[in-house]
Amino acid sequence: MTDGLFRDGDLIRLVTREGVLIAAGGAASLLQTAHPKVAQGVYDHSYTADNPLRRLQNTMGWLYAVQFGTRDEAERFSALVRKGHEQITGPGYEANDPELQVWVAATLFAVAAQFYQELFRRRFSDAELDELYQQTKVYATILGCPEDRMPAAYPDFRVYYAEMVQSLKITDASRAIADQVLNPKLPTGPLGAPGLAMVRLLTAGLMPAPIREQYGWTWDRARQRRFRLLMTALAAVYPRLPSRVRTFPREYYLMTTRRTLAKLSAQRDPVLTVKTPRKPA
């Protein structure tokens, strides 16, 4: 596809086409909500607890539209996200705050780069990491964040990210969201238990130690060994799967996104529905 924001040879597409990255989404999500302002906004407004599958659909639909959709699809979906974020405000936070947009984009880059390299046993060069970082700035800029608010290059990103990881202080809202993310109400019931156990282990293993410790998750030698065994097994099996299997989530979410955009285009003033705020934690 040549009419999108990116081309097929771009690193952002190489990395994010892999559907297994969804399994690492918990780490990115809970890194985001380690920021107190992000956490409070999500806690007050999100429908994650009530409908986690819908939340996943909207998140992945937007990401795939930006990464693989046409420019029009990426911009239209992002305009809807921005409009929805205008309603996500409260004491001390606004979802469209560039500070929060930068942090969310940073977590998406950091977790995807880490997980991809572990999974494919490939180490990106500093030049490749800078290329990927520059491309993932779109997660913030397409939502209105000025590019000059973001770390300019990968070395600057590393400084910013390390400082954030060391300085963030998670809140009760952060912990409540972590419980929702790691113990979701799924229609599969007990049948989903093995998959959830894997996601919990990946989330803990991919989480920077200072944040993991604040969440209070156990991380002893036995748990670390299980994480390494899981990554070894995934690295041995997943890259050998047919491409159509590995990219199925992308095809599915792009299909549903395009159906949604087609329906919204028939409406005069489509807006995102945002849950009524709850009382702060």
TrEMBL record:
It comes from the Bacteria. InterPro entries: MPAB/Lcp_cat_dom. Pfam families: MPAB_Lcp_cat (PF09995). Residues 13-235 form the ER-bound oxygenase mpaB/mpaB'/Rubber oxygenase catalytic domain. GO terms for molecular function: oxidoreductase activity. PANTHER family: BLR2777 PROTEIN (PTHR36151), ER-BOUND OXYGENASE MPAB_MPAB'_RUBBER OXYGENASE CATALYTIC DOMAIN-CONTAINING PROTEIN (PTHR36151:SF3). This is DUF2236 domain-containing protein. It comes from Actinomadura barringtoniae.
